[in-house]
Amino acid sequence: MEADRASWLSSPVGRVLPLVLIGLLWQGASSSGLVNPAFLPSPARIGVAAYDLLTGREIRDNIFITLWRAGLGLTLGSIAGIWLGLMMARSEVFRAYAAPVVGGTYSLPKSALIPLFILWFGIGTATTVCAVFLACLLPMVVNTAQGVSSTPRVLVWSAEAFGTQPRAMLWRVYLLHAMPDIFAGLRVALGFSFVLAISSEMIASTNGKLIFMYGENGAYDYMFAAIACVVVVAFLADRLLLMLTAKSLRWHESARGSS
Amino acid sequence: MNRAMTAKAVTQRGLFIRSMISVLVIVAVWEAAARAGLVSALFLPPFTKVMAEWWSVCADGSLLLDLSVSLSRAAVGLGLATAIGVPLGIAMARSRLLHWLFDPVIALAFPSPKIAFLPIFILWFGIYSLSKILLVAFACVFPVLIGSFAAATSVNRVLIWSATSMGTSNAGVLFRILLPAAWPRIFAALRVALPVSLITTFTAEMVSGGGGMGATLMYSQRFFESPTVFAYILTMLGVGLLLDFVMMKLQAASAWSQPA
Fold it and tell me: Of B48, B113, B214, nearest to A233 (Cα)?
């Protein structure tokens, strides 16, 4: 009986239930006038606004611009990050030269560079993409370097004994062994790409600043709807990456046992 | 043995020298490019000029004032996140009901970019410090919460069972078993949350002003005071490095119960 209840609660329906409860409470508080709808629009009104936003042209363009910038920065940052991380793990000398630069930029809040990029590239796509690129680069470098340098010697030796060429070693041994770490870094980088894309559009952009536009006009239900869209998109992207990770790491030990 | 150690020390020093060289090369190239007029001073002021500007904003106290405003906002926000996140995380590990209730909320909120909620926080709590502090707390509470939950779940059940069977009270289990055993991993979560608090503070100040490092940085950029922009960015870099170093040392010092 106890186990039955627990398994029902952890089913997809059971997991959504708390969110539904919160939504109902929120709607109740709103319609009974407990909270001022100017400060907290009811979920129903936010839903209507969200529907209006998503079917409208202007906002759909804004969302796609944001996603495109975040995606471009993430892709470039990941490719460069994997390459740099691989180099740092494979070459002591390269690591010695690169470590202070990586360490220094790692602890720098990347959004602090947005004013600098505005100065250099003006307001627009280049600034956002650069900020996202840098923010995504560092977790990829650190995770790739860690994954590659933890490759067991036994794997390297056996690959060498089978006559694997040095170039093939990179792809077939080191990078393959680092895959779980690379995916972990990618998940961090994905989160950063959203944060940086949205921060830089809030700080300075001609388009893509979907949230403030409505806040400044006092159309708060639209502002809440835009934020809700951001939350849902970020959540879906995160889930998609997790599914992709599970699919591509099916061969790996970490995939066994855990679901 | 002795020779092996000196050999290692030499390569360590060699690596250190190379690291220094790469920093010096960057600074030198920067200075040379700016002085030679390869790039406009507006885009890249010479390093020496940036340092002079840094010294002057230090001397007139404006940098210290901005830094203290930003750091206190970040610290209060992180403190709030810790005060909420650690107990809630441990409670979620102990209670199935709390876990059921909060897990979907966390799953939805954790990957979302918290800075997007800034307009809501401004609407509710005004444009002064309160909205920024609460946004920082909101951004930091999820990593702290998830870290504390994972830490409390990883505590060996046998420890808890033996303590309970020997008559330890619930409070005793919490303070004498759970917290000490989970502490290293909770601290690791706090180390993750620290840069989040700094980034959120700086970004919120950039977007909505109200004093602090971020606000002055944006202000200087709008008036094309490039040396100030660079001086503030370098200060943020230094603060980030220093705080992470301090956290690393604290983590090593408090790692008495760290599992090997």
Answer: B113
In-domain check, residue A18: no
Chain B partners within 8 Å of A198 (Cβ): 113, 115-116
Query: Residue A4: its pLDDT value, please?
Result: 58
Quick check: A92 and B15 CB within 8 A? Answer: yes
* Residue B42 within a domain: no
Question: Does B38 fall in a domain?
Answer: no
Question: How many C-beta atoms surround the C-beta of residue A36 within 10 A?
Answer: 9
Tell me which residue range forms the domain holding B16.
1-30
Within the 101-120 window of chain A, which residues sit less than 8 Å (CB to CB) from chain B?
101, 103-105, 107-116, 118-120
Specify whether B184 is located in the same domain as B214: yes
Which residues does chain A have within 8 Å of residue B101's beta carbon, measured at their own beta carbons?
18
Number of structural domains found in chain B: 2
Give the whole-number percent of chain A exceeding pLDDT 70: 87
Say whether pLDDT at B3 is over 60.
Answer: no
DSSP class of A150 = T
Q: Which residue in B1, B158, B118 sits closest to A215, CA to CA?
A: B118
pTM of the model: 0.84
* B171 to chain A, closest Cα gap in Å: 26
Region of B209 (left: φ > 0; alpha: ψ -120 to 50; beta: rest) is: left
What is residue B1's three-state secondary structure? coil
Instruction: Provide mean pLDDT across the span A155-160.
Output: 83
* CATH code (residue B205): 1.10.3720.10
- Determine the residue type at B2: N
Is the ipTM higher than 0.90? The answer is no
Mean pLDDT of B45-70: 90
Of A104, A186, A107, A96, which Cα lies nearest the Cα of A139? A186
Q: What is the pLDDT of residue A258?
A: 43
pLDDT for residue A1:
44
Cα separation, B125 vs A91, whole angstroms: 51
Distance CA B137, CA B186 (A): 16
